[in-house]
Structure formats: C-alpha cells, structure tokens
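FORM 7B - TANDEM STRUCTURE REPORT

SECTION 1: FIRST PROTEIN
SEQUENCE AND TOKENS:
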Amino acid sequence: MPKEQDLGGRPSVPITGATAGEIAASVRDHVDSGALAPGAPLPPVRQLAEVLGVNRNTVVAAYRQLVQAGVAQTHGRAGTTVAEPQESAEEGFARDTVLRDVGHGNPAPGLLPDLSAGLATASRPPTLYGEPVIDPELAEWATRWIASDHPRDFRLTLTHGAVDAVERLLAQALTQGDAVALEDPCFLASIHTVRLAGYRTVPVPIDEEGMTVLGLRAALRAGVRAVVCTPRAHNPTGASLSAARAAELRAVLAEHPYVLVIEDDHYSRLATTGYHSIIGAEHARWALVRSVSKFLGPDLRLAFVASDPETARRLATRISPGTTWVSHLLQRLARTLLLDPAAGHQVAAAAAHYVERNAAFVAALAEHGITARAGDGLNVWVDVQGDAARVGRRLMRRGWLARTGSDFALGTAGSAARHLRLTVHDLDADAADRLVADIAEAVTGRPTAGPAA
C-alpha cells in the first residue's frame, strides 16, 4: 500500500508510482478530482522519493512533467505547488469590451477574396470514405508553388491550418518532456501547442534578421529535438530571415540533421520579403508549413505541409482517409480561389495595403520620437522604452485596447515587456492619427497638441 503524504497541513492524499510518468499521473488524478486544490504544496522531492522507494531524480522528472503541463509550478527552495488556473493569451478580437481593439492580429475582412464564387462548385462530386485525402488539382498547384521556393524532393500533406500542422508534426517526433526551440518572443499558438503537449520550451532570441545564430546554437546544446522557425513576417515582431542569416542557421543545423526543423511560413503569398530557408539540402527531418489563413481567411482551415518522406509517412498515419482528412469542400473552395486570377489580384492588393498602412503608422510614430518596426506582416512592433503594461493601461483610458509584448515572451519577458504589438492596418487616417497621438502621450506622460504636423 502506498504511503500517504501530509501536504502542509492539508488533507493527505496517496501519491503513488514507480516511474516519473506514474507519479505525475497520480498527482494529476488528485488535481482533477479536487483532492489537491490550486496552491497546495507537493511533498519535498527527497521526502517523496524515500516514501515511494524511487530515485530522487525520478521525482524531479515527475515534477518537471507537471510544471511543463501547467499542473504545477516551482518556487525554487520554497518547493512545488499545484498551479493556480491561468487564462492564456489568445489571438483575435477581444470579447465583451467597448474599447477599440488594436491588438487583434486579424487580416482585414474587406481584403479577403469573396468565397461565394467557389461555394457553388465545392460540393460536387461528393467525397466518400477511402478516397484520396488530397484533391489532385490542389495538390498539383501546391506542389508547383512550394517547389519554386523549395526545390528538394518532398511529399505533400494537408492539415487543418498551420497550428494543427505544427501540433501533429511535433507529436509524431516527440514525447512529453522533450525540448523544443521556439523564437522569443513567439507566436501565441506555438507557445500554447508546445506547453499543452508537455514539451519543454527553449527560447531562441529574435533580432531584425530573425532567429539568432547564438540562440539556436545554445538551444541545440540544450538538447532540443525540434526547432520551430518563422522564416518571414515573424509574429509579433515582423522580422524576416535575411539570406545571410538563413545560411548561418543552416550551417549550425548541419551538425544536427535529425533534429526536426519546422518552418511556419504563415504569411507566404502576402509576404514582400523573400523566402530564405534554414532547412539544408542534406537535413533529414524537416517540414515547411504554409496555411491560407492570412490571405484567404482564418475560417478556411487548410495548410500545406511539405516534408521529408519519413515525416510525411508519420503524418499520414494521423490524417487518414476514413476519419481525419481535410474536408474536400474546403479543398475545392481553396483550389478555386488559388487558381482564380481575380482572387490573386485581391491578395496582391491586400499585401500592398498592409505594407503601406503599417509603414505610414511607423513613420508617424517616429515624428514623436517613438521607434517601431513594421517589417512584414499584419502588425507593428512598438518600442515604448519603458513598461508597456503601463502604457497599455493609459491607452485603455483613451479608448484603445492594445496587446503588450510580454504576452508573447517565453519565461521572463525581457525586452518584449517594453513593446506593444499593434494591428493598425484597418484604421482610417483620423483613427490612426488619434492612436499615434495617444501613444505619444501614454509613453511620455505629457499631453500632446495632437498629431504631428
């Protein structure tokens, strides 16, 4: 019979197990049942190891799994406790607010192609169980598109968007507790995907040329088994890899050919910067992901995944023609739009719109002495040279809802804490001028006379 642990004066519960996974599962059962409430202390590592008759490192590994899964939190010498429930930051429009949301990260609805033209033909012929999972015409188009940028041999897979692709790619290569290199600051969905799966995040800093060489080298030394990289239009900073930086990163990765490299080229057809890959010609495990969400619409849940044969084979076992294929209704609708010249012109116009609006906003901020980066993408990255949370609160009093850079940070916020990520491409000229003036006042704490002349 397992011994029961006295948890700091709370009712004792029996933590059992002989392996790290079993011990972690036992704690999770008690948390799920309510026997261990948020804030409850877990037994000291040495004490639990002695009671269970296991090595101290086994308990350390179990607690690490619980922390990675968000079930527990560590306090150093003060021990480990059951984690308090926390709401995770999410992309998209804020609900239940009267403020003007300039942190939503959405494309402009009016610049997305009209779906109605493709809906009439998307439902025929019907697709039945056991039929091919990818529409042949769509596969032909996507293969040509990706091969023009990525000429090495690959196999094509479809997933329900980029986030689904990254989740499936990591799941077929990793187990709980494995380390994943993520950009810091990082796209919110990637943070959630890695943490919820129980992987260990290793941050790689970002500069104006993308993922840093020193950061990637340190992550590989730390034993990461996968790297998730945004080659252009990095969210939230807008940075894109230069050709020189990509070559340096390929050289670093050449010594680790079996580390899974995932490139999330989410902005693809809207990008004004070139695609420079960190996937070397001889790299064994890799995947390039391109979704249609930014240029055809977030609700068209479809992404193309080009990958090496082994990765593609493993993905195929998770996307079967019997249950989990991507709807052929969506595939035919996407195919119609991707082949339609008018829709292509609409995408090009949207790309130009985002560049022009973001650049104009950055220039207006510069007139007030505020540095911001438009880069490529839907957002601007504003350096407030101080506490961005405080600036955000001041903007709320002026009717704006902004998103602070700390939402995107891994671990300690660092320089991200002095940044705002703003979505301004959908503001008219008057609203943009008001926001610039309000940011200047919020940053300096001094009233402005209005938009700079």
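SECTION 2: SECOND PROTEIN
SEQUENCE AND TOKENS:
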Amino acid sequence: MTARTPRTRLFAAATTLAAGSLLLTACGSSTSSSGSTGAAGGNATQSVAAASADPALVALVPADVKAGGKLVVAADASYAPNEFKDEKGAIVGMDVDLAKAIAQKLGLTADVQNADFTSIIPGISSKKYQLGMSSFTDTKEREQTVDMVTYFTAGSAAAVKKGNPDKISLDDLCGKKVAVQTGTTQADEVKDTRNPACTAAGKPTIPNDGDKFTLQTDVTGALVAGRDQVMLADSPVVDYALKQTGGQLEKIGDTYDSAPYGIVVAKGSDLTKAVQGAVTALIADGTYKQILDKWGVAAGAVTASEINAAKS
C-alpha cells in the first residue's frame, strides 16, 4: 500500500504542541482483518436485498463494459470492516457489498479482486480494473489521474492499549512509538506534519517516522503486543479493531480530519457518471443504508454522491 496519498486523505485538525498549533494530515489506510466477519455495531451476517437494474443507468454504461457483463473491482482486502477476507478467504466488507449493489444497478455483476493498495490506481489507468473501492480518500492529487465518485466519509483516529498505560495524548505523540500502515495518510501525517512539528518544538521525533506495516492487521497486532504504543488509522478501522481485540485497546481523543472516500474510475470515463448515478440510486432506495448498517459504519453515511469533489 502506498501513499495513501493513494488510499488516504488529507485532513486538517488542530494539534497543540509546546511550539503552538499545527495542521495535521491524517487518513485511512487499509486494515486487514481476516477471520471474524463481525462488524463493529453491525451484523455482518444479515443479508441485503439485491438492487434492481435501472434502465437509465444501464444506458450510461460504456459498450465495452456492458459487453463484458461485469465490473472488475479492485480492493486491498486488509482493511476491516471496509474490505477484508472472512474465515473462508472470501473478500467481504462494506465496499464489497456496495460494489455488488452498484453493479446490480448498472445491470452487471461485480468481480471483486484482491490487490495491493498501491497497485490499484495504476491498474485503473491501465484498464486492468474498472473500479477501485478500497477506502480511497478523495484528494486533488488523485483526481489528477483518475475520477473519484464520493460515497462515504471517514476521519482519522488513534488507539492505545486499554487503560492507556503510557498516558498517550493524541495532541503530542513526539517520541512515542506509533504504528501506521504503509502508504496511508496517517503515515504521511507522521512524516510530513507531526515529526516536523516535534522538531520545531525541540522534542524527540516519532521513531522511524512511525513503524510502518503493509497490512493494517499487523499495525493492530503491533499495538496489542506492546511493540508500539499507539496506532493511527481510519476511524471505522479503529472502531472495528476495538471490537475485534476483545477490549484490549481503547480509542484516545476524537476522530479528526474527516474527508470523503471516493470510488476510483478511469479519468474521463463515461462509467464515472453511471457509478455516481448508481450510488445516488442506492442512497435513495435505502440499499445504501442497509449496507452501512450491516457493517456498523452508518456514522460515515453521506446524503449525496459527487464527482471529483476533493477540497485538498
């Protein structure tokens, strides 16, 4: 997974250090959770009614995609509850269910394929995949090479061991061992924002610009094992980790730097408007809410889908 700056977002949140306040960029990465399919606050075993095809939206689907009969969707299946593998190895999660419903609205089926996060946007550009649904934050940088159709909102959050034995404060992580997923905005936040602020304040920096792991499950595992003192990740991922680790972790501080997730589509493709129309229709007919409720992530629901709406 790589700079999320491909799956991340840039968030602005004020953080106070001895040197004053600064803006943080945080973001989501891809958390892997293979094993349990239980969603934090949801019920991952519940079924969602199939979405019916919308003739007007079907008409917007490019001929080559329509001829293939399916949407090839790339997801880094390591970011529960958004996309991950269940006990049987099947790719499941909020993004997976939404991808299937979007395909149904367009008269297609979804072929969700596991892919390394950093390979997804290049794979869209090379036409290996038609969509990327992997908790990508919509950013202006990404919009330079692909279209982004917004469908969800998430922020960054932090977790520590239960009881916060090291008395970690989200406002000051200088000198602390911080676990992040490679390529996420949280990784960028540590390197580009937090550590320069620590240096300016005359404080020790976060070692190694954060301990970086390819999979979010390894980030969580490092915190549970005590190898790191705090982890930064997307808010729904942190919430899920709290549930799945049986009370071994707790959240500190508030969720910060909220920003929209975007479905990745090839730049300028006619498919972009079809996908936006499908998301809009799913919001209107209630399927969207059913899926978010199923995975316990309704707090991130949006009321409208936009194309290339990044603010930063």
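SECTION 3: OBSERVATIONS ON SECOND PROTEIN
The chain has a mean pLDDT of 87.
Residues 124 and 308 are 16 Å apart (CA to CA).

SECTION 4: SIGNATURE
Preparer initials: ____
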